[in-house]
Design brief:
The structure is a homodimer. The model of chain A has no long low-confidence stretch (mean pLDDT about 90). Chain A has about 900 residues and is α/β, with parallel strands linked by helices. Among the domains of chain A are: about 100 residues, ATP-grasp fold, B domain (D-amino Acid Aminotransferase, Chain A, domain 1, 2-Layer Sandwich); about 130 residues, Phosphohistidine domain (Glucose Oxidase, domain 1); about 350 residues, Phosphoenolpyruvate-binding domains (TIM Barrel, Alpha-Beta Barrel). Chain A is elongated and about 105 Å long. In chain A, strands 14-24-23-16-17-18-19-15 form an eight-stranded mixed beta sheet. The longest helix of chain A has 26 residues. Chain A is built from 34 helices and 33 strands. The interface between A and B is large, with 48 and 48 residues. Chains A, B: Catalyzes the reversible phosphorylation of pyruvate and phosphate. Chains A, B: One of its GO terms (molecular function) is pyruvate, phosphate dikinase activity.
């Protein structure tokens, strides 16, 4: 005889957690809860094999199913002490579908099955609440009528609305038991009218109707389409779980509540939760009555903790609390009901928690021996560290959302609106908090971004200039908030019907991308000892090194404080915009007089040498990768007439000649233009100046810190071996000259960015000339997908929303496309140069999923913004552990 | 005994053509010429093994070398009837180096070796020209002194200059024999002073000095570097060839000349060439005396053909002419000298020829049975067909070059300068020839480009808009002529010191990129029957199909006339710019009112349907691939205020609103922007309109031509399978609706461009949704190399010039990078869909080298501009034949 039905709860538990294929997800969960000794309301599960047999056999059940179900029903009656259809003490059940995987489109749940004109009176008596009983009955008819019998849901709603109108009441709760009785009659009349059938009064008939509806829904069009889309075979079938309903509102020996095995907001190891005596589950949530605390220790004056009111049930719950943590080895969220002093557990699952709680629970559990150190590492979502590292909005603060953009750089900040970098500095000098609002930012805004509390742009994506720079300096940033109109001339911001002026306050939440009206209170970050513990464990577990992208001493110090093991990307061009330098940069670009050009370059070399000495000193021997000039020259050009006039005066040249030269430097697609090593080849004096500055700085800094310094010089935008060969040869010549001048030894590495598809495709050739590779996955994403990060805002959000792309490829690396090229670059590069040092310095270096990918393909390090270093350390540890697990399995 | 020396010429020929490794390139060539019975001046070659032994043995020669050389010298003396060092009848020799491969950096040649104070008199007597004898002696000392003895070359030049100054003569030829005699003394004194050694007078000492210098030069730094760069092993060594000098200036029974076995400018099968009695080779070239014709048939009145003057030598030469063609199986270029009635062949090689001659010679030789049909196909360089298909500059016409740009579209054209498309049309309407001069062109200039004779731009590369469009319509184009300044306001063109105004004439040579002042005469193309014969043979030999890129009926007809087998790319956006359409396009883009947008789309659909009917009718059942809208919408936007006002009026909208919308559509990097299928997804109504027009047109055209038409709909800029899946599904829905409306059947293919690296990398997925692939190698080159074709002019020419890139990758596909992606796309796509139809529609479709690559990776077709179709047919045939050869070998 085939066993079609598996009981659970009470004294008879026939299923196990592993029987998911047979019992469905819900059935297996219930069996697992019962099997570890939780008092779940008794019930049974009809297996998925019944579903398969049903469809094989022209929608007929196996012969012996009926008998097995009846038998199982009796098991429930015995366990719960009630009778199915019993007028005095009626057993009610829920009927739920449950396939192997959760699947929309199928019938979900019918509650309170077993109610009819007679059992409803029994429920009224036992609960002492006729209104509740009749309301349950009304709801049951509505649910069963629509889900099982196919009466449109809105027809029931129409009747209810009419009744309320006639009774002149606003709210369902104002309808009395007597009035509900009438409504039930109307409902049943509706069912008869719509279907030509009486609403079934026999609970057994009701039950078989619900079971049939579950199996029927397996083949409905919505479920079939979903299966097709997700490659779920129809043969899997669905199971049906039938379970006793229990009620927390049958007297003062009844209660209902929700609790957590630990405090989900702090992670503290205390029993945390709320309950209500003589109430239904929804009352706890609805907030009509004030829920009471669980433990005496947590009760304030006048509160009635469950520990006092229902000591037996509380004791049982306390027992279950440690049982659960012992079994699931995690903090659990529990829904329970006490019915006539008997505790029932309705549901338990891993509890949602704040970032702080996740950290504390993981560390505590490891200390308690409940989980291993490795498991603790895996328990904390790396991205949640952002909440710990940055100020957050006070969850209690009132707020009015103005608009929403991209969560470009985490943290929360409030300030007065200003529109220019200059204005930011003016206000910041007066210690006023300001938010810089721009359509988009450019390198000239960097000093303003630094002085602002936060940055808001209306255009650009997650790797737009604003986003990258803000993350780099740890400033809050919301980018690409397209719903906001900025009018620079009128100095206004228009959004959501509000028109804000310069000086009006707004608040940014860089973690969600929300922009709020006015000043919303924020709370500062607090880093606990647990944070340091976790980081230490992560460092033990990870293989990937973590460096930071930094140019300034301040950023380098931040990076070090967050545990960076070097600098993976110092963007020399960021050093060009300081007011005392940009003039020289412009003169260098704009003049055609060799002497004037040499003068400008000489001036810049002094600055750059000092910059690099500062960086090398700060990093004190840790590796520092300096990228030579990368962006197109036109980024540095004078924009306005005044700036142009300044340059003309400095050079003693005609302003019209300079204007023409400026125009000649403009490009249709600057991202694909005259930049990177192409500049190094056409204007070799610029790279020579930078390399000279690096070599001199390394020698000088080594003397100061008393350790050898091996600078890593990185040549950007290489597409061919020949480009690297020539720029490398030129750099080596310069370094040799410096060594000869200074009369000391200097070791150095010269490597390249792999940021063009061609570089990855021909990495075995390029590796001949490179001591190391650093994958520039921002640019590689742009070229591989043909996607400008500055322009993608017009369609990329739609792509992600519609599922055309799983995620923004500038946030998390596109493993199939861009990732394939990175993998190719690694493999080919190491074919030529085994064990070659390889890292990644794009924005993906701070993204946990991307880091897992980089671990899997064997990179040596990732480099990210200083503020993302802890995230990267943790993600790298998780990736290493997961890889180890996979290797073992 | 090892044979170190191999003789040739006279009666003793010991080498063979295949002994290149032993005899070096030059030695093997001389041996080959001698071995087929050509009267080469006798000589011998010292093998490369001597060089190797020399270096192995601390720079000492093998013991028996001296004896073998002396022996060989005697062979020369006997063959030529002169004595080495003989005072009366002195034998002079040349000494040349010759490695397996030609190699710069080594000693090249010493001529007239054997001269000294005594033999020079013998030469003076036998030539009857003491000046010649002493000048030869002077030159010998200079050559030997610098090359063998290491005296700086300029020191000899200084003495010569001083002498001329003292003698008050301008030209070397004015120095008399007596004066030369003094100069020789001075030269020898210089050698003694510089080297401390007397200039050797013993011819044997001279000879060994020269041999030693050749071997010594094998290891000099320049040669070593060259070998290192080109992976040539030092062990290969060099050979030394020593050969008798013969003189055509020793009397009236002497002569010298150059001839071709056929006419190198027409290809006609007549003996063609020039000679001079009693002259040196350089006299023929120098033009002081007028060379005479070879054959009586070619002689005009008063000329003295060789056939009459030196009948014996002429008869011998005629014999050799057919001997040579029989042996080398190609038209040969011959250098000869007659010394005392004895004919000597100095050199023979395949003769350079015009495109017309190449064609005629190949076809004739095949008809004569000298070569096979396949060889004939391989003999004509495909790119030379451009000369036959387009007007060319009259080679006799005088010309002044103004500037030089890129040879963007072949042919020659002269016309008056105009600056706007509108002005072109005004002049063209009056039948005036004009050249459109622009900094760069945009789609709005297309109608003007069509009406102009040629197009000149100062910016942009080989695949800039101007270049691509001009090639497509067969207009002459010189692009990216950076040396020209265009001032639209002043309506002037400044170049090379000239300032030209509107209306001034210029002439373009699109085959070389030259721009000439004024009107240079051109000659029209003439297509011979041989052209058709060659094309027919090529069609038999090729596997690749050849389609054309065309949108208009006129272009399609041109394509058909040139033998196109279908349309591989019809760019629908080119159809949007006609004056009666662009308004609707702008309204469609600019309005946000759905009704107005629908109205504009409806209007465009009528136009597009008619366009497609025209194309389908013209191609009459041949495949036609229509690409849906590709460029970013902003390309169609109104630029000026008037245009903006027009759109505002048509839409009844505020001009400020429209201006804002226009600005919002502008992009930082439009090439990587909101275009292609991204538009199809965000604005589906545009693709729906186009697909509907295609389906309706295919049905209508099929009725007209009476054949089924299977349109190929191509979706551009696909990066992910999901994009194609959705756009394909939408297109199929539209087609189904049309089929239902029309009540007829319609077959269709829906495919995609593979033009982004990601598409190639994930082609196995994309192939699930594509009936065919067309590789868009223009865009693929831009993204793979990160190179904007519009901006590359600022460094790409330098890259090619410096050898960083072997060729412009927009002209000839970058096989290593872009080619790797195409190969990957082919392989992966056919893994999913075996035998999938694949082609290429980038500009590389007309480039012979690229076509060879496409043949090698198994594409089905190439598609190129109509005017390049013959080039592609021939290149495809050559590629197929070469592949076959490789397979056999």
């Amino acid at each position: 005889m085939v066993q079609w039905v598996y009981c659970f709860g009470g004294t008879r538990n026939e299923g196990r957690a592993e029987m998911r294929n047979l019992l469905g997800g819900k059935g297996a969960n219930l069996a697992e809860m019962a099997s570890i000794g939780l008092p779940v309301p008794a019930g049974f599960t009809i297996t998925t094999e019944v579903c398969t047999a049903y469809y094989k056999n022209a929608c007929a059940y196996p012969d012996d199913l009926k008998a097995q179900v009846e038998n199982a029903l009796r098991h429930i009656e015995q366990a719960i002490g009630m009778g199915f259809g019993d007028k005095k003490n009626p057993l009610l059940v829920s009927v739920r579908s449950g396939a192997r995987v959760s699947m929309p489109g199928m019938m979900d749940t019918v509650l309170n099955l077993g109610l009819n004109d007679e059992t409803v009176e029994g429920l009224a008596n036992s609960s002492g609440d006729p209104r509740f009983a009749w309301d349950s009955y009304r709801r049951f008819i509505q649910m069963y009528g629509s889900v099982v019998m196919g009466v449109p849901h809105h027809r029931f709603e129409d009747i209810l609305e009419e009744a309320k109108h006639a009774l002149r009441v606003q709210d369902d709760t104002e309808i009395t038991a007597e009035q509900l009785r009438v409504l039930v009659k109307d409902y049943r009349a509706l069912v008869l009218g719509e279907t030509g059938k009486e609403f079934p009064t026999d609970p057994h008939v009701q039950l078989w109707g619900a079971i049939g509806a579950v199996f029927g829904s397996w083949m409905n069009p919505r479920a079939s389409t979903y299966r097709k889309l997700h490659d779920i075979p129809a043969e899997w079938g669905t199971a049906v779980s039938v379970q006793a309903m229990v009620f927390g509102n049958m007297g003062d020996d009844c209660a209902t509540g929700v609790c957590f095995t630990r405090d989900p907001s702090t992670g503290e190891n205390v029993f945390y939760g709320e309950y209500l005596v003589n109430a239904q589950g929804e009352d706890v949530v609805a907030g009509i009555r004030t829920p009471q605390p669980m433990a005496i220790a947590r009760a304030e004056d006048g509160q009635k903790p469950m520990e006092t009111v229902l000591p037996e049930a509380y004791a049982e719950l306390s027992r279950i609390r440690s049982l659960l943590e012992g079994h699931y080895r995690d903090m659990q969220d529990i829904e329970f009901t006490v019915q006539k002093n008997v505790l029932y557990i309705l549901q338990t699952r891993s509890g949602k928690r704040t970032a702080a709680a996740a950290l504390k629970v993981a560390i505590d559990m490891a200390h308690e021996g409940l989980i291993t150190q490795e498991e603790a590492i895996l328990r904390v979502p790396p991205s949640s560290l952002n909440q710990l590292l940055h100020p957050a909005l006070d969850p209690k603060a009132e707020r009015t959302q103005l608009a929403r953009g991209l969560p470009a750089s985490p943290g929360a900040a409030a300030g007065a609106i200003v529109f220019t970098a200059e204005d930011v500095e003016t206000h910041a000098a007066r210690d006023e908090d300001v938010i810089l609002v721009r359509i988009e930012t450019s390198p000239e805004d960097v000093h303003g971004m630094h002085a602002a509390k936060g940055v808001l742009t209306t255009r650009g994506g997650m790797t737009s200039h604003a986003a990258v720079v803000a993350r780099g300096m740890g400033r809050v940033c919301v980018a690409g908030a397209g719903g906001i109109q900025v009018d620079y001339k009128a100095k206004t911001v228009t959004a959501g019907g509000h028109v804000l002026k310069e000086g009006d306050w707004i608040t940014l939440d860089g973690g969600t991308g929300s922009v709020y009206l006015g000043r919303v209170a924020t709370i500062p970050p607090v880093l606990s000892g647990d944070f340091a513990t976790l980081m230490g464990w992560a460092d033990d577990a990870r293989r990937l090194r973590v460096r930071a992208n930094a140019e300034t001493i301040a950023d380098a110090e931040t990076a070090l404080s967050f545990g960076a093991e070097g600098i993976g990307l110092a963007r020399t061009e960021h050093m060009f915009f300081a007011p005392e330098r940009i003039g020289h940069v412009r003169q260098m670009i704009m003049t055609e007089n060799p002497a004037l050009r040499a003068r400008a370059i000489e001036a810049l070399q002094q600055f750059q040498r000092d910059d690099f000495i500062g960086l090398f000193r700060t990093m004190a021997g840790l590796p520092v990768t300096i990228r030579l000039l990368d962006p197109p020259l036109h980024e540095f050009l004078p924009h306005g007439e005044n700036e142009l006039a300044d340059v003309a005066a400095a050079l003693g040249e005609n302003i019209e000649v300079l204007r023409a030269r400026r125009d000649a430097l403009s490009e249709s697609n600057p991202m694909l233009g005259h930049r990177g090593c192409r500049l190094g080849i056409t204007a070799p004096e610029i790279y020579a100046m930078q390399v000279r500055a690096i070599a001199q700085a390394a020698i000088r800094a080594a003397e100061i810190v008393g350790k050898p310094i091996v600078p890593e010089i990185m040549i950007p935008l290489v597409a061919t071996e020949e480009e690297l060969k020539r720029t490398r040869a030129a750099a080596e010549e310069t370094i040799k000259a410096v060594i000869a001048e200074e009369g000391v030894e200097l070791k150095y590495d010269i490597g390249t960015m792999i940021e063009l598809p061609r570089a990855a495709l021909t990495a075995e050739h390029i590796a001949h000339e490179a001591d190391f590779f650093s994958f520039g996955t921002n640019d590689l994403t742009q070229t591989t997908l043909g996607l400008s990060r500055d322009d993608a805002a017009s369609f990329l959000p739609l792509y992600v929303e519609k599922g055309i792309l799983p995620r923004d490829p500038f946030v998390s690396i596109d493993q199939e496309g861009v990732g394939a090229l990175v993998r190719m670059g690694v493999t080919k590069g190491r074919t030529t140069r085994p064990g070659m040092k390889m890292g990644i310095c794009g924005e993906h270096g701070g993204d946990p999923d991307s880091i897992a990918f980089f671990e899997s393909i064997g990179l040596d390090y990732v480099s990210c913004s200083p503020f993302r270093v802890p995230v990267a350390r943790l993600a790298a540890a998780q990736a290493a552990l997961q890889k180890r697990e996979k290797t073992i399995a």
